[in-house]
Amino acid sequence: MERVPILKIGDILLVSIQLDMSDQTAVQLQEDLAERIVATGCHGVIIDITALDIVDSFVGRMLSTIASISKVLDAETVVVGMRPAVAITLVELGLSLNGIRTALNVERGMELIAAARADEHEYQLDDDPDAETATP
Amino acid sequence: MTAGVDLGPQAQAIRSDEDVVRVRQLVRAVAVAVKLSLVDQTKVVTAASELARNTLVYGGGGSVEVTTVDNGRRRGVQIVFVDSGPGIPDLDLAFTDGYTTGGGLGLGLSGARRLVDDFHIDTSAETGTRITVTKWSR
């Protein structure tokens, strides 16, 4: 079985799915990501699906599950790079991807995560000096 | 009669997760060969992925045959999924969005039907399930 690599960039885990995943590979990615979030203490996960030709209900469910798991582990998930044809097909398939944040590309995804973290810090009155620079 | 690559019928067994991936790749190749638009390619490959997974999970495995079809005006891709599983006892229920017996999202069958142009299903406890779908070029 092939495995999807997970890269750590600062406070973010970046997953760029470059292969046509079998269901087993998708489930493995879910587990690997949960472990990496805990091991690294990262607060953001970006899943880049630019290379995916299709997102069927299984992969859609995997994306929702990853978003839920990471939320429980105090990390934000953003799915980036969805192709227009994939978006059209997903809607017709009936998949709403509830609870998933999306952005057009990795850069915007990183901005979204930084903004979400900044909001949270403000709310918690955290005195983390990084929080201010992350505010847009 | 028609221009372009003419692929004969292509068969693929569905016995494992990896076979579902192979079905997607096979359907995409044929959809490209009959010059479906990118959106239609995406739709038919997605539908095939759902149905191939159903064949594996609910039908206990089976096979698929992918063929190019031509009705004189348009070309298309036709996919036949066959399994000798337990059949689908209540089709109306099975086509309801969100209904599942397998722990999935319950969108496979109903969603796949929305993504193709023609959808035909024969199912019984004795012979298993046979689903034929067709996507035509615009």
UniProtKB/TrEMBL annotation, chain A:
Residues 2-113 form the STAS domain. SUPFAM superfamilies: SpoIIaa-like (SSF52091). It comes from the Bacteria. It holds the Pfam family STAS. InterPro entries: Bact_StressResp_Reg, STAS_dom, STAS_dom_sf. This is Anti-anti-sigma factor. It comes from Micromonospora acroterricola.
Automatic annotation (TrEMBL), chain B:
InterPro entries: HATPase_C_sf, HATPase_dom. Signal peptide: none annotated. Residues 39-138 form the Histidine kinase/HSP90-like ATPase domain. Coiled coil: none annotated. Transmembrane segments: none annotated. This is Anti-sigma regulatory factor. It comes from Micromonospora acroterricola.
